[in-house]
Amino acid sequence: MKEFMSNHIAGLILGILIDLAAGDPHFLPHPVRAMGRLISLLVRRLLGPEKEDGQSDGHSGQGDNKSEKRRGMLLWWIVILLTAALTAALMYAAYRVNRYAGIAAEAILTAYALAAKSLCTESMKVYRRLSGHDREGATLALSMIVGRDTENLSEEEITKAAVETVAENTSDGVIAPLIFAAAGGPVLGMVYKAVNTMDSMIGYRNQRFFSFGYFAAKADDVFNFIPSRISALAMILGCRVLSFFSRSFDPSGAFRIWKRDRMNHLSPNSAQTESVCAGALGLKLGGTHTYQGVSVEKPAIGDEVRMAEAEDIKRANALMFVTEAVVSAVILAVMAAVIRK
After folding, report:
1. Per-residue pLDDT tens for 250-283?
2. How would residue 292 be classed by pLDDT, with cut points 50, 70 and 90?
3. Angle of the 311-340 helix axis to the 2-22 helix axis, nearest 10
């Protein structure tokens, strides 16, 4: 047991460090891209190609279609079982070689599950364009990391959108996969990534995926329920740490807005970290966004203590990294305690 936990701790630490150092090099294959191709293939087979009206062949156009829900559930289980089986087979093969190969495989897969460096890299592209007052370039960079329409956003709105993305993905892209990878190794870490990827691809409330993606969206809510709240509490603590170094961070505001606005979202999880970040920086986030030309009304999160500025993107990233450090420290402390018993 001690050897197993030692190997697991080594793989987890190395995975975190690899992600922080290398992120997601686009020239290398990535499991999430493979998941995306599989999901797209299954969508075409189980739902049919998209038609010009946004529906699919065999799509009823009704708000609740039980057949589509069953097919969506089938897709979910196929992707989950394949992901778990392939990851488990890879880990088994690696550890059969020797413990060092196993640790290396665990580290690489853990790094693939995390997205801290990539999230920082992509959001900082928006920051650099805004700093140079290149609104068109900032709009293009933002469109790479958000699902909403970005063409008509002002510089302040672009900043807020980038801050929201960093805040939300601190949970979805960093803390949640870290927790699952710590609890169940690369197998559970990759399963979580599959859950999250399916939600991002088919978990929409539009006419095409309303029923077909229902199970994927609800499963993502379940998987993220506890991690999102752990992320929020860790982010509040992280804000306290950062407040010792910069007056730009308000830990009392972070806690107050989280307590008030943590459920101000269509999702039960997304506003957890967004509300902390909004309170920490004194920004008003959320509100009405446009997706593919359709306006979606969302509750506001936070108070507009001041106008958003490009530097807030850097501050949101700092909050993300400190939050990851807090959660990592707690996880490693728990693992070390288990080994000592």
Report:
1. 999 999 999 999 998 888 998 999 999 999 999 9
2. low
3. 170
Residue 68 has, within 13 A of its CA and on its CB side, a CA count of 25
Looking at residue 52, its pLDDT comes to: 56
Question: pTM value?
Answer: 0.92
CA 257 to chain centre: 21
CB-based contact 232:258 (threshold 8 Å):
yes
d(CA 136, CA 16): 34
Q: Using the predicted structure, report yes or no on whether residue 13 has a pLDDT greater than 70.
A: yes
pLDDT in the model for residue 181: 98
CA–CA separation, 142 vs 130, rounded Å? 11
Residue type at 127 in one-letter notation: Y
What SS3 string covers 252-279? HHHHHHHHHHCCCCCCCCHHHHHHHHHH
Contact 310, 154 (CB under 8 A): no
289, β-bridge pairs? 296
Write down the residue that tokens 């700093």 correspond to: 131
Angle at 291 between CA 287 and CA 293, to 5 degrees: 110
Query: Which residues lie closer than 8 Å to 209 by C-beta, 6 or more apart?
Result: 202, 203
User: pLDDT value at position 60?
Assistant: 46
Place of tokens 């293009």: 140
Residue ranges in the chain assigned as alpha helix (H): 2-22, 31-46, 66-97, 99-113, 116-131, 135-143, 155-169, 176-202, 214-243, 251-261, 270-281, 311-340
Which pLDDT value is given to residue 62?
A: 47
State how far the Cα of 328 lies from the Cα of 16, in Å rounded to an integer. Answer: 9
The DSSP bridge partners found for residue 105 are none
pLDDT at 147: 78
d(CA 189, CA 181): 4
Q: In the prediction, which pLDDT does 55 show?
A: 53
